[in-house]
Amino acid sequence: MRLQLLELPVKPALADIPMTLPVNVLLVLPESDGITPISGVFNLPAAVNELLGKEGWNRAIKVMNPRILAPGWTEDQFRKTFFVPSGTKERSLSFNQIAALRVERSPEAFGGTTQPAFQYAIRHYTGGYGREVRSSEHYPLLDILRMTRFARMLERFGAPDRTLLTLYRRSVRAALGFGETRLLILQASKPTQSRAMRLAHHIVATGGPTTLIVTPEDQRGINEYFTHLYAGIIHNKPLSFAASADDYQVSALLVQGQGGDRLLSFDSWREQLFSRVVRLDQNHADVRRRLG
User: Fold this and answer.
1) What's the confidence (pLDDT) of residue 277?
2) Among 53, 156, 190, 237, which residue is least crowded by beta carbons within 10 Å?
3) Cα 215 from Cα 230, distance rounded (Å)
């Protein structure tokens, strides 16, 4: 399926700030009550290990560093989902390595002067509730924003998304990592696709991160497409190239501002490093001339 691309006439807040390594990624899972089935979860650590693990996991996370927010998930749920080999190379991680990736609370939960350990360049909301669960109709808006009970009540009584997003603008900006996040990925089901599109439009229109909405056909489509996406990011490809969906069983929409296609590019950082090397070389030559 083809990637749809929508560019809005607004400049992202991070457009002029160089991207650096490592690429910190927060994988956010739907909240679990221990009973309701959750499916469609992308195994990001396994994909990173597949793409970068040849020289070992510690080397891999210096390039792409995944973390997992899994509210309400038991250790057994977590183990069954992530403690499995994946990909053609069948590389595996130890359970201790997987367990170390779990964060107990979202970055926006830190208050005052306390800062989270990482700033996340990518936030990937993965998975969804079973079709028989009524609350899945409200995904991704409510689960992503962790909205209050009052907000949920307004939503269920038919308050438009625009109204909710305006009322809870501060919560939206915190939950979506404005000021640190460059790519937001929303996995949506077909019934929630239009809702996710409206949310993406609002995010980008207010200077937020480039937003990718992906509606997969099945688990295989999830695994293959997102491995392809992260491979493109690792290889410094434009997001419109990395997110191409021609060979995958997913529908994808990329919403971005002007320059949003290169928000994860390392080019500016590389140029800065090169300029520093040139200046150091010039300074060294000057010193040698003075001493000579």
Assistant:
1) 65
2) 190
3) 17
Total residue length of the chain = 292
As given in the structure block, the two tokens for residue 98 are 């997987």
**What CA–CA distances, in Å, run from 21 to 65, 96, 151, 175, 269?**
9, 24, 37, 23, 9
Among 157, 219, 209, 208, CA closest to 183: 209
Asked if residues 128 and 38 have their Cβ atoms less than 8 Å apart, the reply is yes
E strands, the chain, in order: 3-7, 23-28, 38-39, 64-69, 102-103, 122-125, 128-129, 183-187, 210-216, 250-256
CA-nearest of 216, 156, 154 to 186 is: 216
Q: Give me Rg for the CA atoms of the chain.
A: 20
Tokens of 230: 């992260």
How far out from the chain centre does Cα 195 lie? Answer: 18
Q: Yes or no: say if 15 and 259 are a contact pair by the CB < 8 Å rule.
A: yes
Structure tokens at 189: 């089901």
pLDDT computed for residue 139 by the predictor? 46
User: What distances in angstroms separate CA 51 from CA 42, 238, 272, one per listed residue?
Assistant: 15, 18, 27
Q: Could you tell me if 82 and 43 are in contact, meaning their C-beta atoms sit under 8 angstroms apart?
A: yes
Tens digit of pLDDT for each residue in 62-95? Answer: 999 999 999 889 999 999 999 987 777 878 899 8
